[in-house]
Amino acid sequence: MKWWTRLSFPKKQAWAGRLFILPWFIGFIFIFCKSLIMSFIYSVSKITIGNTGFLTTFVGFKNYIYAFKSDANFTKVLVDTLITMLYQVPLILIFSLIIASILNQKFKGRVVARAIFFLPVIIATGQVISIMRGDIFSQQLFSGERSSSLFTVMGIQSILVNSGLSLTFANSIILLINSIFDVAWKSGIQILLFLAALQTVPRSLYEVSEIEGATAWEAFWKITFPMISPILVLNLVYTIIDNFTDYSNKVMMMASTLAKGMKYEYSATITWIYFLIIVIVLGIVGLTTRKRVFYIDE
Amino acid sequence: MNKGGNNLSISAKITRQLKVNLLNSVNHKINKEKALKSSGAIFWKVFRFSILFGLSFVLIYPLLYSLSVSFRPFEELFDPSVIWIPKHFTLINIKDAFQAMDYPSSFLRTIGLNVVSSFLEVASCALTGYGFARFKFKGKNLLFSMVLFTIIVPSQSTIIPMYVSYRYFDFFGIGKLISLFTGTNMSINLLDTNWTFYIPSMLGVGLRAGLFIYIFRQFFRGLPKELEEAAYIDGCGPFSTFIKVMLPNSFQSMLTVLILSVVWHWNEYYLTSMFFLNKWTISTALTGMTSHLNDTNLNPYAFVCKMQSGSLLAILPILIMYIVLQKYFTESIERTGIVG
Fold it and tell me: What ipTM was reported for this prediction?
């Protein structure tokens, strides 16, 4: 213990800090990094199951080439997932911002309304919601009978087409209606984060702007929006990640089915391709939003 | 005199009249604005109510549907005269689902798994978050970006190697080292045991641990520095400061993370279905019961009713917890300083 007492205070603090993060560091290296690297090794190998674990023999990037060149199913699912994300992420952000602004006001029954809108945080992460929504059954048994009782989508489509809209436009409106359900169910955490952000905006700013004669619309764009922009970015990133890593995501489903069918190499390949795409997308988001975020203490 | 007085009174009258007129017009204007404002406010209230009500319906609908279907005999599933309240009330669906899910033992297993790993996760993430929030050391920023990195990697990417390492668990290489000398195989099989969840939770890489570390770091950064300085002057070391000063002050954020962790562990399906091959937790029991029910050659409508009862049973404990802790849940997350 002698060397410890000889250390200067900052050095002691540095060692204490390292000690605090030590458990995480061990886990990070020995569980997380090891698994990530192993999974990459699996994706470029052929696996035989041995006595003390998997035995791998290097085969090169055969699986990656197969995924893009020969597996038509994979590329289709991948493109589908990316397109769904492209329209769902902005919808989720706009929706949750609107709901958060409403829930931030004072009115009767606010507690109940909040409890209901945070319900997805509790349920939506599990298997339960997909069963409750009848997704599984509507595909297998009644071919959409359930959802049509909720929103009579087919009726709306025929109305839209009859009123002179093109079929593609009508379909995109239908898509929008259908996504309201999805979006409402995927916005739990985002609403929570926005609500927390809205409460940090000082009231005095709004009072000043009202005296100066600003409308609520102007106040939103000139005060609220810049003030919550850091959380907007956080939410954007969270939504993208959540959409990417969600278990009901088609690519992820494909990966887990493959893993359960003992096709470990190909499953690892798919998740690695997918993971690289996430990194690229988040990199683009990070670069484009970096300069535009407003931080009050800078 | 009289004339002058008259003049004066006339001018006074005129000014008074003018004042009244002015006041009236101002009042009128204010009233008009008030009326406009209040009609706008009423319109807004109606609009707000209809939006909230409609969306609440969308969010509650699946729960109500499930509740309604669970208690009706399957013949009434597509009876157009039955919308919400079944004609014949029955408990057979619930009972069958209860048995098919092996509910008591799955429930107890899930609770055990859940509570222990959530507490471990809170402990390890609080330590790590505190380390990142309050101490300066080389490479801290790099390491923290690694924490963020763990958030973006989907668990599907790491699950197969994790499966292998639990199947042939060698204590992070120590077992391998020993077996080099002794020649015996030291690895043990951890699959189907709760250790598959305890170990990563203990080491801060459990379920969504990156997010929790981030929350704790933000929270501890928001606490006043004077708290620790006072403790240091009084002779506390860094660790006892953490235990005696910081922990009592972070009860709220601990509770938030604990609740989130419990909920996410409860709902976790993917990892449990990989690591628990012969045992069920609630979430795997729900899909596991499908095969049970398929064995008995059920009518598809009855199958639907029983699955809905099953999901109701699966969600019920967590729903009760949510209702009881609702206040903590919604209020505390706002104040943990995730945003700070």
Answer: 0.81
